[in-house]
Amino acid sequence: MDVPVAALTSGSIFFLISAVGLALAFEFVNGFHDTANAVATVIYTNTMRPWMAVIWSGCWNLLGVLTSSGAVAFGILALLPVELVVNAGSSAGFTMVFALLLSAIFWNLGTWWLGLPASSSHSLIGSIMGVGMVNSLISKGHSFGDGVNWGKAKDVFMALLISPVVGFVCAAVLLLMLKVVARRKRELFDAPTPNQPPPLWIRSILVVTCTGVSFAHGSNDGQKGMGLILLILIGILPGMYALNMSGDDSTVKRLQEAAASAQVIFDAQPGSTTVVSDAEQAEVLSAFLRPSGKVSPQTFSALAMANHHLSDLIAAKTRLSDLSESERRQVRSQTYLIGESIGKLNKLHAVSDAKQHDSLMAYRSTLDGLTKFIPLWVKIAVALSLGLGTMIGWKRIVVTVGEKIGKSHLTYAQGASAELVAMTTIGAADIYGLPVSTTHVLSSGVAGAMAANGSGLQMKTLVSLLLAWVLTLPVCVILGSGIFAAGLYVLFTVMGTPLP
Asked: Long-range contacts for 290-299 (Cβ within 8 Å, ≥24 apart)?
C-alpha cells in the first residue's frame, strides 16, 4: 500500500488534525453528557462509589465502541447530501463536517452546563438537516430541502420519538411486575440507607444493568463520530482510506465477477440504451439518490455506464493495492453511487425479476464490503474519547437524573427497571442501525418508574427536559445551517473557492 501521508501539504495536515480532533471532541462531550445517565442509578443507590462507577462505565463504553458493527455510523452518513459524500475531499465537504461537529458540540455543552440531559443524537441529526438544507439552496438542480435524505431521516426520527415513550412505559410496567413477582423482597422498593451499600444480590443486579447501558451506549453513540472521521480520512488520505484494503487477493476477482453479472442486468433494463455521457452519469445517479429522485430512462443507463467505468478501473488488477490513489478515489465514488442506487431500486421494487433482484443485492453486499468499514484505530480513538468523557464530566447530568426527576429518592427497583429497559432498547436499535438517545430512554425510564411507584415527579425538571428535547432539533438545524453557510461564504468570498 502506498503511504500518501508524506505528500500532504501543511494545510492538509492542519485540516486532518483539526477535523479528527473535533470529531473526537464531540465523542468526549458525548461521554460526559450522555453516558452520565448510566451511572446515576448506581451512584444514587450507593451501589458503587462515584469514582468507581464512572471508571467502570467508561471501560464498558470503550468495549461497546470496539465491538460495534458500524451500522449506525453508515446510517448517519446516509443522511448527508449525496454529492458531499461522493466528493468528500472538496472544500464544501470539509466545511460540512466542521459545521456538523461544531453545532452539535455547542448545543451539547450548553445543555450540559445547565444540567439538562439532552440528546447528542438529536443534536447531530439536526445539524445534518441544517447542512442539507443549505446545500440544496446553493447547488444546481436542487429544490429547497432536497439535500436531506427524508426517508432515512423519517426512520431515525421514529426511533428518536418512540424510544422515550418505550422507556417510560416499559420501565413503569417492569416496576409493577417486580412488585408482584418480588413482593417479599421489600428492600428492593425502599429508599437506600445513606452511605450504606445495598445487599449483594441487589448490588449485583444494578452493576449488571449499569454495565449493559454503558456497553450499549458505546456500541450505539460511539459510532456517530466514526462515520464522520472516516469521511475526513477519505477526503484527505484517499490512498489509505477510500477502500477497505484489508481484503485478501480474491477481493478484486469477486468484484470483477459480480460487476460483470450486474452489467448484464443493467444492460437488459428498459431505458438502458438512453444516451448518457460519461460526465453526466454521476450527476444522474446523484439526482436519483436524492429524496425526490425517481427511476427514469436515464437511471439504468447511468448505472450501466458507472458499472462499466468501475469494471474498467479494476479490469487489469489482481489486488486493491494495484490501484493508484486517484483510481481508489474513483472506485470509491463509483462503488458508492452504484451500491446506494441498487439499494434505492430495491426499496422502489424497480427490478421485478427475482433472480436479477437477488443478484443485484449480492453485488451491493460486495460493494459495501469495499467502502463500509471502520479502521481499528478510529474505533480505539473514539472509544477512549467516549470513555474519558464519561470519567470527567459526569456530575451535572447525574444530579439531574438522580435527584430532580422524582420527588423521592431513587429506589433499587426503580434504578434497575430504568436501566434494564434502556439497555434493551439501545441494544435493539444498534442491531437495526438506528441512532437512539441514551439520555431520553434512560431519563424517561426513571420518570416512568417513579410514576409507577407513586413517588411523584418534579414537573419543573420534566418541563426543562421536554424543552431541551423539543428545542434540540430546531436549534441544531439553525446552528448547522448557519455555520455551514458562514463557512461557504468564507470559502467563496475570501478564498475564491467555487461553490458546489
From this structure: 290/82, 290/142, 290/146, 290/147, 291/145, 291/146, 291/148, 291/149, 291/150, 291/151, 292/143, 292/146, 293/344, 294/348, 295/345, 295/348, 295/350, 296/271, 297/270, 297/271, 298/271, 298/274, 299/271, 299/341
